[in-house]
């Protein structure tokens, strides 16, 4: 089994602009020793370590951790995709067998159509030729632009992080945006080869969540992307803001429980290995 999305960080490094003391339980250092008990408990063998700061320094920090941590199968790093040196940086990163992709922090950028800027063209071409993946950290308002981005760069391997962060309606609250979110995701799934991460849903819940309240979102993703294009991720330690690793893991097992065993294992590891090409990289 592979956790397709987790983080390690140290706030004292100073480049996590979003990570502030107001985030309480996750505003501290998190490293491999903190995560090891959960990996053992859930019998997860490898993880994908994903950037959380828009700096080259943090990518180097993560790679240093990965080299000393056998459970890390790959690192999704960061590059300034608009920089003139971006293609060179991407080519350099691609030479490191631990680097499996890059992730711009699109959700934090003021321009929701940023990904369509022509200035990204050389970097995207370098990503495509290098074989590195593109993690799309987007929200609902980015989905029309992401759809256009996928049409523009059909050769790029893309995964939608956290299912594009839908607002998960709980209790008696109305599903204000569910239909629009589902329609966008269906279009993206049917008209591209993009994958989607089954992660981050619980931290988008607008109340106390339950597995039953997550079920419509999971069913929509399963119907649109299918069991071979969904990648499970814990989003640890961010998941500690919404109950923690254990409740999300137990909910996941319940959600996938009705699938065939080979489909369950695909979502819980095989798809991450395929998408990030781990079988020819870190898991070889």
Descriptive account of the structure:
The protein is an alpha/beta fold and 284 residues long. It has one domain (2-279): Metal-dependent hydrolases (TIM Barrel, Alpha-Beta Barrel), CATH 3.20.20.140. It has helices at residues 32-42, 56-67, 86-94, 121-130, 143-152, 178-191, 211-225, 245-256, 261-275, and strands at 2-6, 46-50, 72-77, 99-102, 133-136, 158-160, 195-198, 230-232. Strands 1-2-3-4-5-6-7-8 form an 8-stranded parallel beta sheet. Strand 2, helix 2 and strand 3 (72-77) form a beta-alpha-beta unit. Helix 3 packs parallel to helix 4 (121-130) and helix 5 (143-152) runs parallel beside helix 6.
Describe the secondary-structure layout:
Elements: E1 2-6, H1 32-42, E2 46-50, H2 56-67, E3 72-77, H3 86-94, E4 99-102, H4 121-130, E5 133-136, H5 143-152, E6 158-160, H6 178-191, E7 195-198, H7 211-225, E8 230-232, H8 245-256, H9 261-275
Helix pairs in contact: 3-4, 5-6, 6-7, 7-8
């Amino acid at each position: 089994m592979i956790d397709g999305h987790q983080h390690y960080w140290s706030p004292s490094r100073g480049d996590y602009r979003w990570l502030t003391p107001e985030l309480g339980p996750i505003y501290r250092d998190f490293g491999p020793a903190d995560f090891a008990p959960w990996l053992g408990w859930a019998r997860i063998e490898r993880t994908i370590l994903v950037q959380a700061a828009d700096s080259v320094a943090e990518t180097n920090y993560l790679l240093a951790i990965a080299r000393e941590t056998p459970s890390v199968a790959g690192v999704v790093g960061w590059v300034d995709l608009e920089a003139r040196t971006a293609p060179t940086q991407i080519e350099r990163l691609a030479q490191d067998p631990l680097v499996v992709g890059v992730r711009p922090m699109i959700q934090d950028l003021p321009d929701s159509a940023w990904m369509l800027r022509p200035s990204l063209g050389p970097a995207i071409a370098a990503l495509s030729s290098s074989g590195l993946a593109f993690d799309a950290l987007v929200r609902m308002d980015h989905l029309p632009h992401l759809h256009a981005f996928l049409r523009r760069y059909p050769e790029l391997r893309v995964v939608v992080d956290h299912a594009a962060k839908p607002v998960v309606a709980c209790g008696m609250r109305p599903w204000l945006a569910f239909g629009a979110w589902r329609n966008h995701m269906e279009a993206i799934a049917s008209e591209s080869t993009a994958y989607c991460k089954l992660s981050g849903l619980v931290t988008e819940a607008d109340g106390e969540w339950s597995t039953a309240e997550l079920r419509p979102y999971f069913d929509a993703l399963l119907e649109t992307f299918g069991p071979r294009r969904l990648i499970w991720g814990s989003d640890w330690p961010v998941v500690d803001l919404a109950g923690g690793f254990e409740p999300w893991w137990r909910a996941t097992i319940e959600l996938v429980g009705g699938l065939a065993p080979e489909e369950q294992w695909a979502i819980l590891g095989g798809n991450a290995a395929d998408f990030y090409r781990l079988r020819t990289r870190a898991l070889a």
